[in-house]
Design goal:
The chain is α/β, with parallel strands linked by helices and 595 residues long. The chain is 45% helix and 16% strand.
Length: 595
């Protein structure tokens, strides 16, 4: 009988109770317990069933589900006689850190206090136990009422395991889901150092020399470096996306997908399903499918990038847009369906995440956006995982360029209106967001290269003026070569001269002096000569000064603002970057049509 496809259910008991579609993954219970590792950390991308797996483990082992082997009828684990006797016999702590996403350390501490209080509340029966001391019960109550200090919250998992051991007389299974979420949020919100100390002390108490611990199991998306969080834990086994252990326990295998398609009358679409959703690789198994995408396809019967639409992609965008030119070029190659070669290190060092090519592509691999095609002598050849990922990234890139395009038109309006404050504000925003020191250099020895970068960047900003203005660059006028000249085609509006200078510590002490040097060069070399000769009455002169991501724009004091009706300017031709997206779109369509 065909079962209903349900989305977002992470409680194993609910899945079985509602009799909805489920792929049997109970073999993991045997694999994990028989591994004999005291603490296991497993990393998998988003939406690969990590939360459901931990809930399944809890449902099988926890004393809360004593004598509930009926929940596993017909599943693999029910046929394992040794495990039948183990069902419902362990005290279990199951804690998810998925919602610890605060933007400050104080808020994180408060969130952890509430989370721990809720956990203790679920085990409040221990307050009635005659095996706990009055002092233990008092400390237990303080945590429930959120009156315990942060140090007690850091020690809470170990303390709860002690109380459960004393009550049940048996060591405890500790399950932690989304262990890395607080660290990721702390990294993006700039309180990494304090957050990592909190989580390190919590995990140390729970998993290091905890006399009440039977087994520990943690899941997350990334493997935080051993030095950051597990520095003195020598009892932990780490299973990453390249580890063969548990390779088919998370996600659907091709056999499982084909069986599901056949059951729902969709087996004729297997090739297209494979093209869209296949390609995830765990261990040596490269035929893994994302469960979320498959379930959505079975339910909607429509191909779409379901997986990357499930959460924000802000960090992905930042890593690409703020990365070096090499990162951007490599990303474009991947987006067109090509491959690149890079080093891979699955231990994520967040401090190196921005700018470091190896760390960025390792993060993309860990999070599922890229896959290893083959190992090379100088690294790994990688590609985007499948068409779903390429399609989602394509839409994301179009959105980035659309946002930038709107900002570019605003910059042009401000330039033509002589709005110096607005130009300054825009340039400060865009340079801090998109420039990296890999792009522009940071020392005076690189000033020529850096000036060329800023020069080209600004030309990109004003490219749309070509419809109403004549744009020239590096042309002779007066006694030298100006950087950028903007001449109105109607011969009536004001002309514009722009000169770029990069801060040189040998010549200046401030950016103001750098901008002044640019304006002095315009005057000394009389760059406005040609424009004046062609009848323009007013020529506005701007000095753009740069130092890394810092920018300062100054205008010659003797110039007046250009006409305010320049605000009525409308954009005509598309920017070169938009044309670049069209090239990517063509490649995307070719890849899809070829199927």
């Amino acid at each position: 009988m065909k079962k209903t496809v349900a989305l977002g259910i992470t409680a194993f008991e609910d899945i079985i109770g509602r009799n909805v579609f489920y792929v049997d993954k109970t073999r993991f219970i045997k694999y994990w317990y028989d591994s004999a590792d005291q603490v296991t950390l497993i990393t998998r991308p988003r939406r690969f069933g990590k939360t459901l797996t931990l809930n399944m483990v809890e449902t099988f082992f926890s004393v809360r589900y004593q004598n509930r082997m009926d929940l596993f009828d017909g599943l693999f684990i029910a046929g394992e006689e040794r495990f039948q006797a183990m069902q419902g016999t362990f005290p279990v702590i199951n804690l998810s850190l998925a919602n610890v996403k605060q933007r400050s350390y104080d808020d994180m501490c408060y969130a952890m206090r509430r989370l721990v209080a809720d956990l203790f509340g679920r085990h409040s029966y221990l307050l009635q136990s005659d095996r706990l001391t009055e002092a233990e019960k008092e400390d237990f109550s303080k945590i429930i009422w959120k009156k315990a200090p942060d140090q007690d919250c850091m020690d809470a998992i170990r303390f709860l395991s002690q109380c459960m051991y004393e009550h049940f007389g048996k060591k405890v299974l500790i399950l932690i889901d989304e262990y890395d979420t607080p660290m990721l949020e702390a990294y993006t919100a700039n309180y990494w150092d304090t957050a990592i100390e909190y989580i390190r002390r919590m995990f140390h108490a729970a998993f290091k020399d905890n006399l009440y611990l039977e087994r520990g199991l943690l899941t997350g998306i990334t493997r935080i470096t051993q030095e950051s969080i597990f520095s003195d834990l020598n009892n932990i086994s780490v299973v990453t996306t390249t580890t063969e252990q548990f390779e088919d326990s998370f996600g659907f295998t091709e056999e499982e997908v084909f069986s599901a398609l056949e059951n729902y009358g969709l087996s004729d679409n297997m090739d297209k399903v494979r093209y869209w959703y296949d390609g995830f690789q765990f261990g040596k198994d490269s035929g893994i499918y994302n469960p979320w995408s498959i379930l959505n396809y079975l339910k909607a019967r429509k191909f779409s990038p379901y997986w990357m639409n499930t959460s924000g992609n802000a960090l992905v965008g930042n890593l690409v847009r703020e990365g070096s030119l090499k990162i951007k070029d490599d990303f474009e190659i991947l987006l067109k369906g090509g491959t690149i070669v890079t080093e891979i290190d699955e231990s994520i060092t967040y401090a190196e995440l921005r700018g470091d090519s190896k760390t960025i592509w390792s993060w993309f691999l860990t999070t599922g956006y890229v896959k290893i095609v083959q190992e090379r002598e100088n690294g790994y050849e990688i590609a985007l995982t499948n068409f779903e990922v390429r399609e989602a990234f394509y839409k994301l890139v179009k959105k980035w360029f659309a946002e930038s395009y709107d900002e570019y038109t605003e910059f042009i309006r401000m330039l033509l209106a002589g709005n110096l404050e607005g130009m300054q504000r825009y340039m400060e925003k865009v340079t801090s967001r998109t420039f990296s020191f890999f792009d522009v250099g940071s020392g005076s020895s690189e000033s020529d290269v850096a000036e060329q970068f800023y020069h080209g960047f600004t030309l990109g900003l004003i490219a749309d003026l070509d419809r109403t203005h004549i744009l020239t660059s590096n042309r002779e006028s007066g006694f030298g070569r100006y950087d950028v000249c903007i001449e109105p085609r109607d011969g009536k509006s004001d002309g514009i001269i722009i000169e770029f200078k990069v801060f040189d510590p040998k010549k200046e002490t401030t950016l103001e002096e750098t901008a002044k040097r640019a304006l002095e060069q315009i005057e000394a070399k009389r760059y406005e000569t040609d424009l004046k000769a062609r009848g323009l009455k007013t020529v506005c002169k701007y000095g753009f000064a740069f130092r890394g991501k810092e920018v300062l724009i100054q205008k010659a004091e003797d110039e007046q603002s250009v006409r305010e009706d320049a605000n009525s300017f409308r954009v005509g031709n598309p920017l070169p970057n938009v044309e670049k997206v069209k090239t990517i779109e063509d490649a995307r369509r070719e890849m899809y049509d070829s199927r």
